[in-house]
Amino acid sequence: MDQKTNSEGAAWLVFGLSGQVGAAFAQALAPTDPPCIAVSRQPHPAGRGVRWVQAGLEDFQCVDAIGAIASLGPLDAFADWLERSPLAPARVVALGSTSVHGKRDSPDAGERVLAMSLRTAERRLATVAGARGIALTVLRPTLVYGNGRDRNLSRLVAVARRWRVLPLPSTARGLRQPVHVEDVAAAVLACLREPRPRPGFFDLPGGEALPFDQMAARALAAGAPGARLVRVPGWAFRFGVRCLRWLGGRPGLGEGFLDRLGQDLVYDGGPARASLGHVPRGFRPGVEAFPARVAPQHREA
Ligand SMILES: NC(=O)c1ccc[n+]([C@@H]2O[C@H](COP(=O)([O-])OP(=O)(O)OC[C@H]3O[C@@H](n4cnc5c(N)ncnc54)[C@H](OP(=O)(O)O)[C@@H]3O)[C@@H](O)[C@H]2O)c1
Questions:
Q1: In whole angstroms, how far apart are CA 155 and each of 160, 190, 209, 220, 300?
Q2: How would residue 240 be classed by pLDDT, with cut points 50, 70 and 90?
Q3: Total-model pTM
């Protein structure tokens, strides 16, 4: 019997289970889900329904019968891997990013390269899926937060905790739609569990669009209560960031990021709602979104 007709109950192969979204995905697994084979470059003890394989996307070879694949790690490396692999599971669900839209015209060359590589990876996956009869779903989350492992809002909160103030340019009013990590994991699981696959490319925004400075204020209220948001003129903020760079500091705020602070990055969640039942929550982070310390195995590399 070939893999397509034998996919019922066959294992799910998961890349990125050790990551931010992967942790939420692992927590949401149900006893009725098929067993998972999780690939990580680090060693992990076996978990409930999860067998870990220590390997990277560069060298992993699958020898098991696989019903579906979830890619919760880098999309371009996953496209490389799927092209090389002979697997043809019934469905593949892969996380991309709305950066494919938002960074396409960035003044930052590195960000334009990222957007292009995401777009190219999506196309390559579509080609493989088409050739092998795989139902491919690509989900593009916006800014992900929720378990303290993000590299965006948690960084703002860390600055505010340390200095008790967070300077932001007064121009930081562009709309954002942060999406909770559990809502992203739920969308991936819905695509895997639905009796019929839901192929397509879907933007996956959060349930609320709010200006960047309001988003930052709510994050501070949850993670650094009492810290103040200080609005400075846009030119002064940009000048300060450039000075930090000239002095050898690494503020991690590129020209693209600074430009986008005033731009609306708003994506249509309608198709994901209609096809996947994705009904994400609004942005109301609690203390759990910004824990004081993240467990060692949960630290960002
Ligand atoms: N974070 C966001 O705000 C955001 C927004 C939009 C889209 N996304 C996308 O969503 C996905 C998940 O994001 P995340 O924040 O959960 O990522 P993350 O926390 O950085 O986790 C990345 C995961 O990818 C795995 N990985 C990385 N390189 C690998 C390799 N060469 N071989 C095997 N596994 C590899 C890591 O596993 P090991 O280190 O254990 O090997 C880890 O589990 C990514 O595709 C990201 O681009 C994220």
A1: 9, 30, 20, 11, 12
A2: confident
A3: 0.93
Domain of residue 190: give its range.
11-293
Q: How far is CA 143 from CA 18, 37, 204, 286, in A?
A: 18, 27, 10, 17
Centroid of ligand 1 to alpha carbon of 286 (angstroms): 23
220 lines ligand 1 (CB under 6 A): no
Place 294 in a pLDDT band, splitting at 50, 70 and 90: low
User: Distance from the CA of 15 to the center of ligand 1, in angstroms?
Assistant: 8
When divided into structural domains, the chain yields a total of: 1
pLDDT of 252 over the 70 cut: no
Lowest mean pLDDT among 17-26, 138-147, 288-297: 288-297
Centre of ligand 1 from the C-alpha of residue 34, in Å: 22
User: Any idea what the CATH number is for the domain that residue 175 is in?
Assistant: 3.40.50.720
What 3-state class would DSSP assign to 208?
Answer: coil
User: How many contiguous H segments (helices) and E segments (strands) does the chain have?
Assistant: 10, 13
Which pLDDT score is estimated for 85? 97
